[in-house]
Design a protein that fits this description.
Number of domains: 1
CATH architecture: 3-Layer(aba) Sandwich
CATH superfamily: P-loop containing nucleotide triphosphate hydrolases
CATH class: Alpha Beta
Oligomer: single chain
Structural class: alpha/beta
Shape: globular
Helix content: 40-55%
Distance between the termini: 32 Å
Number of strands: 8
Strand content: 15-25%
Bound molecules: adenosine-5'-triphosphate, magnesium ion
Length: 254
């Protein structure tokens, strides 16, 4: 089985990478999980997962005659993690459409694929994960700009046949919970979790470890485990999913 999720937001900095790794670790208790930094222009998953010093990353795979994806895949925190590098030159050399074949290869070996997605919808590389995934997890903060950008991601995903798995409202302070519940009415799929503003999340990032490894008993980690339990990954046929990825036509960005 395999299901591919894009973790997306529209607005930057809402907590996509934190959420990708937290959901990944929680799901890894039950499933074979592979996490990919599909934000190839502004990659930062490597900093959250202690992979800042690795030799080979996704950038080395996304070029003609590049490394096999296995060379950029690291077993960490109970998951397979495919980080991307941060060099601008490597991003410019990378061919984003090659991500289709890479994800197709990874699909053969995973129950759950989580694609940490770029913030904007401005380029082919940015929209690729949302177009290719089965479902999108929309990570929001309870602010008008974040909700507005999240709605655009939803509209775009639905227009390409990508379902909405649900929303995560992150960095919730005080009684913003009710605001999150109100805003959530505009989104398809359930409210997966409201994750509180959490010092542990920031310390985890600084330590280069996912939240669920760094502070598994924190309130934020507990919220992410509840979100993961609501995802209920679908039992997609690995071959079908791989074929879909390989043959997908990536549209021009909106
Ligand atoms: N619940 C939280 N409480 C406090 N800080 C958080 C929380 N979630 C994430 N952060 C912090 O917010 C910052 C942005 O989070 P993260 O890198 O996950 O966002 P992102 O959406 O991936 O950003 P980008 O758009 O730049 O890729 C990080 O420093 C992270 O530690
Ligand atoms: Mg990120």
């Amino acid at each position: 089985m395999v299901e591919a999720f894009a973790v997306a937001s529209g607005k930057g900095g809402t907590g996509k990478t934190t959420s990708t790794l937290a959901l990944g670790m929680a799901l890894a208790e039950e499933y074979d999980v592979t996490v990919v930094d599909a934000d190839t222009g502004m990659a930062n998953l490597l900093f959250h997962a202690g992979l800042a010093d690795v030799e080979t990353t996704l950038h080395d795979v996304l070029v003609e005659g590049g490394a096999p994806v296995e060379a950029a895949t690291y077993e960490r925190f109970g998951m397979r993690v495919v980080p991307c590098g941060t060099s601008l030159a490597a991003f410019e050399a990378a061919e984003p459409e090659r991500l289709r074949a890479v994800v197709a290869d990874l699909a053969a070996d995973a129950d759950v694929l989580l694609l940490d997605s770029p913030a904007t919808l401005g380029s082919k590389s940015a929209i690729l994960p949302i177009v290719l995934a089965d479902r999108v997890v929309i990570v929001l903060q309870a602010t008008i700009p974040a909700v507005s950008d999240g709605l655009k991601v939803q509209e775009y995903a639905l227009s390409y046949g990508t379902d909405v798995a649900g929303t995560i409202f992150n960095r919730v302070r005080g009684d913003v919970e009710s605001a999150a519940e109100k805003a959530d009415r505009y989104f398809e799929g359930p409210l997966l979790a409201t994750v509180p503003e959490s010092e542990a999340a920031q310390q985890a990032r600084a330590a280069g470890r996912p939240l669920l490894a760094h502070a598994p008993d924190s309130e934020a980690a507990t919220a992410y485990r509840a979100a993961a339990a609501r995802l209920d990954p679908r039992d997609g046929d690995s071959g079908d999913v791989a074929d879909r990825f390989r043959s997908a036509v990536v549209p021009d960005p909106p």
